[in-house]
C-alpha cells in the first residue's frame, strides 16, 4: 500500500481578502508560514519518505518548511497539481465579480478551468507519483480547488462539500488498484 498525504498550502494575503488566486503566484503570509511550521511539527512524528509540490510559490514555500523539518529534499515540482486556472476571475473577490459581471457571472465564459479538466490533470499527477513510489509514504503540497477536483476523481464517493483548510492534511491509501481516504481535511495542528 502506498500512502499519499495531500496538503493544501498555508494562507496568503489573498486568502484573507477572499481573492481568487488560480495561477497567480502569491507568497505565503506570516500566518501561512506559521501554519506550515505547525504542520511540519505534526508530520515529524510520522513516517514520510518523499515530498512533492505544485510549482506555484505558495505551495512550494509550504513544502520547503515541511521538507526542512522532516530532513527531506523536495522530490519534484509537479505542474499537474498546480491550482485550477482562474481565468479572468484571478485577483477578484466575490463582490468585485458581481459588480463586474452581475450575479450570474458563473454562467459566463471567463476562462475558468473546468472541474473535469482539473479532475483528470490532478488524478493523473497523483497516480503517477503513487506508481513512482509503491509502498512508500509521500506528501504532496498543492491547492484547494485542484485537490478537491483530484479527490473527486480518485475517491468519487468522498463527500467534498467542506472546503479544504489551509495546511489541512488529507491522507489517501492506494492498493495498486483502488484509492481510499483515511483522513479528510484535518487541520488539528492549527486548531487550538
Automatic annotation (TrEMBL):
Top-rank taxon: Bacteria
SUPFAM superfamilies (alphabetical): Phosphoglycerate mutase-like
MF (Gene Ontology): hydrolase activity
Keywords for the protein's UniProt record, in alphabetical order: Hydrolase
The keyword Hydrolase appears for this protein: yes
Pfam families with a match to the protein in the record: His_Phos_1 (PF00300)
UniProt EC number: 3.1.3.3
This protein's record includes keyword Transcription: no
Name of the protein in its database record: Phosphoserine phosphatase 1
Amino acid at each position: 500500500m502506498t500512502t499519499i498525504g495531500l496538503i493544501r498550502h498555508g494562507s496568503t494575503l489573498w486568502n484573507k481578502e477572499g481573492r481568487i488566486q488560480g495561477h497567480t503566484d502569491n507568497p505565503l503570509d506570516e500566518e501561512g508560514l506559521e501554519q506550515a511550521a505547525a504542520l511540519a511539527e505534526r508530520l515529524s512524528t510520522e513516517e514520510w519518505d518523499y515530498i512533492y509540490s505544485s510549482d506555484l510559490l505558495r505551495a512550494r514555500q509550504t513544502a520547503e518548511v515541511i521538507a526542512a523539518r522532516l530532513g527531506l529534499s523536495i522530490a519534484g515540482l509537479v505542474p499537474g497539481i498546480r491550482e485550477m486556472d482562474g481565468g479572468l476571475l484571478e485577483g477578484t473577490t466575490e463582490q468585485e465579480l458581481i459588480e463586474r459581471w452581475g450575479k450570474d457571472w458563473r454562467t459566463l465564459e471567463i476562462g475558468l478551468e473546468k472541474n473535469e479538466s482539473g479532475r483528470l490533470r490532478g488524478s493523473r499527477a497523483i497516480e503517477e507519483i503513487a506508481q513512482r513510489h509503491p509502498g512508500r509514504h509521500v506528501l504532496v503540497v498543492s491547492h484547494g480547488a485542484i485537490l478537491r477536483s483530484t479527490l473527486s476523481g480518485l475517491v468519487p464517493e468522498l463527500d467534498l462539500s467542506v472546503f479544504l483548510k489551509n495546511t489541512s492534511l488529507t491522507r489517501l491509501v492506494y492498493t495498486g488498484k483502488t484509492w481510499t481516504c483515511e483522513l479528510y481535511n484535518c487541520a488539528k495542528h492549527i486548531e487550538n
